[in-house]
Amino acid sequence: MSRTKNISVVSSYATDRLIEARPGKVIREQKGGPVLYLAHALEKHGLHPEIFTGEKLLVEILVKQNDEFGSIKQKPERLPLPPIKTGSAIVSTILDEWDLSNAGEYPGLLFVDIQGYVRDGSDFGEKKAWEDVRNIAPFVFCLKGNTVEIGMLPPDIIENQKKDKMLIVTKDKAGTEVFFRGNHVISAPSRIVHPPNTIGAGDTFFANFVYQFMTTDNVESAAHFALDKTSEFLSKIK
Questions:
Q1: Alpha-helical runs (H) found in the chain
Q2: Would residue 64 count as lying in a domain?
Q3: Residue 195: which domain range?
Q4: pLDDT tens-digit map of 58-97
Q5: Do strands 88-92 and 176-180 pair parallel, antiparallel, or not at all (unpaired)?
Q6: Other Cβ atoms closer than 10 A to 46
Q7: CATH code (residue 60)
Q8: Distances, alpha carbon 42 to alpha carbons 46, 134, 185, 209, in Å
Q9: Structurally, how many domains does the chain consist of?
Q10: Cβ-based burial of 191 (10 A; exposed 0-12, middle 13-18, buried ≥19)
């Protein structure tokens, strides 16, 4: 039986200020934040996720060829994980505005994108260690990040996720690797898209992966499905 109706989103909205790398001028401002892309992806499958959001942040995004780097000057208010009543939840932050120290109180499956927790925010692309990940990881079913972000985690946390739970490593055009309870699945996109930017792609992938995994319990199916939906998303960016 499908469990997809039991998905919550814990995230943030933002105003994205896109800045051209050279000469550093503002390209435009647009609505953004992980929740925008997570919710949109889930709603396309007919879902109406329970959504929890913090304060809206201003994110400056330096747009370079094939990559973007975010900088967030304001320090957001930290909020505890809300009283989620659904059986699964996606957490994707801009910085560390959602404090997951109470994650042990949530009995469902917690899918966490680590992007915000390892983002320094003080300068474009700067990373930092996720200091309290050891206290949180035991209560998180899935950790997801790109190769650089996952590399910021302690090696034993990475190995524990691979062996006992789930770890997703995204690799841009090369696709993704998913480690699930000792199994290892490598998936490549069926088509390569060259958009002007990839803002929202990571959250689009994550939402579609969680949706398909919660529907099928099949990691390989979820990875291929999410990559296809992400390619479709990227093809519409102007």
A1: 34-43, 133-136, 147-150, 155-164, 201-216, 219-234
A2: yes
A3: 7-234
A4: 999 999 877 889 999 888 999 999 999 999 999 999 999 9
A5: unpaired
A6: 8
A7: 3.40.1190.20
A8: 7, 30, 23, 10
A9: 1
A10: exposed
